[in-house]
């Protein structure tokens, strides 16, 4: 009995001292995690979360780069938003953003990226490597250079017109007659590699047996694609869709350097419109209100992305 | 019978050849604009359309490389990109440690905030960031611009670093502690060596996106002698783009080289950034 009690006492004592050291350890870990996280917090608060809060704050002001409103800005309520929604240029830029987004990213990059990934699946290794490298080159090329390369390609004496003339067609002033087509093609060239890589990874995970089984059951290539492959990789499709939407939504440099948003407002997407209002027309308050719209769209897409990731696990 | 057999053979050959034809066509279309830059840069009489150069000259490269303004822009660009990459790796690595190793009650909301921030377009906050820079008198400061860039890639970097750190077994670290190593020392001698793929992934991604970033320095930097290459090449394009294609092509190649090198080094690590599955452990 005694012995057992003694042991019992001993073990409870040990538990006690263990709890004490655990508490100490917990405290130390707590202090250490604060120290380790501190630099991140400072940078994120100052340069990430503060600007987001300022976006909300400033979009209700008449802040300006010049004149009296530069020094004494006033809160003007929803005036910027009222102006924005009645501004035909705003509507045009929303429309342009949607056209650009749908054709260059959601359709262009996704379909081309998927086509590349699926066609490359059963090809020889060296062939795959060559095509893959060429497509990746568009992605590795910095945006300003992408703009420059396509500016040359679409210029009056550029390669596009040389090709047209060689097959007996009339040359076209691409950047003036089809500016949106031009920026869409340039962005497909620049961004497709991302979708290609995503779909290569996704298709690698599709079990061969499932496709073989469908083949034995007599399903044609299209049927297998539609009823077997696509349903299996639908998680990757939606994730990729949200990610490239976010990338395309914030795209500024490519369009700015290629067409400057023009001619007129034909390729003026929301980021270009925001830039023009804030820095060319000096209306920082109005420009911030436009940023807020971009930010809200981005937040919705971002939340969708998190939702999709959660669904996957 | 034999006709049917022949038809089947034709169809299967057809099915085998078509993907090669389609892929080659796409490949050629992707290659054309690129070939033009490569040819125009060495062509003594560069034109706007793709043609094989008659002769080969390095004059364009020489002209760009010997221009002090261009040299300065490369130095500025390297300062921003290298500085940003180093800081991002250190700061995100530090943050990843407690997030990966300790039970923190705010871990989950923090990681979701980070993931949320990862996806936000930076373009959308540039107008208020400019206002913030005016307010704090940071405009035209390369250091502050670099710090802003660091902050903008932190969410992504913390997320990746944390997931890489999760894959380093705690037991290895504990063994080092038993041998008398401090947490700091364990981090340095056990975790960091095993984390190298993560460190590479993050620094390569950060460097490449920073080197190519035009919008941020375009807004925040004003003095011509502080501008990085991404902005200088744009200005060069605006000033001489319609005349001196050869020089602009050479500038483009020189400017793209660091990004290409980084990509080649990082090729084996890059694929991990595309593994959505691995990035979901909250």
Automatic annotation (TrEMBL), chain A:
CDD domains assigned: TM_PBP2 (cd06261)
InterPro entries referenced in this protein's UniProt entry, alphabetically: MetI-like, MetI-like_sf
Span of domain ABC transmembrane type-1: 95-305
Subcellular locations according to the entry: Cell membrane
Keywords, ordered alphabetically: Cell membrane, Membrane, Transmembrane, Transmembrane helix, Transport
Gene3D superfamilies, per database record: MetI-like
Cellular component terms per the entry's GO annotation: plasma membrane
Coiled-coil ranges per UniProt: none
A Pfam family of this chain: BPD_transp_1
SUPFAM superfamilies, per the entry: MalF N-terminal region-like, MetI-like
Residue intervals passing through the bilayer: 34-58, 94-119, 131-154, 174-199, 241-259, 279-306
Bilayer topology term: Multi-pass membrane protein
BP terms from Gene Ontology: transmembrane transport
Major localisation: membrane
Protein family membership: Belongs to the binding-protein-dependent transport system permease family.
Name used for this protein in its record: Amino acid ABC transporter permease
Organism of this sequence: Marinithermofilum abyssi
TrEMBL record, chain B:
A biological process from GO: transmembrane transport
Name of protein: Sugar ABC transporter permease
Chief place of localization: membrane
Keywords tagged on the record: Cell membrane, Membrane, Transmembrane, Transmembrane helix, Transport
Family: Belongs to the binding-protein-dependent transport system permease family.
Pfam families: BPD_transp_1
InterPro entries recorded: BP-dep_ABC_trans_perm, MetI-like, MetI-like_sf
Regions crossing the membrane: 20-42, 78-99, 111-136, 142-161, 194-221, 248-266
Chain ranges of the ABC transmembrane type-1 domain: 74-266
Taxon lineage: Bacteria, Bacillati, Bacillota, Bacilli, Bacillales
Species of the source: Marinithermofilum abyssi
Record-linked SUPFAM superfamilies: MetI-like (SSF161098)
Bilayer topology annotation: Multi-pass membrane protein
GO-annotated cellular components: plasma membrane
Compartments, record wording: Cell membrane
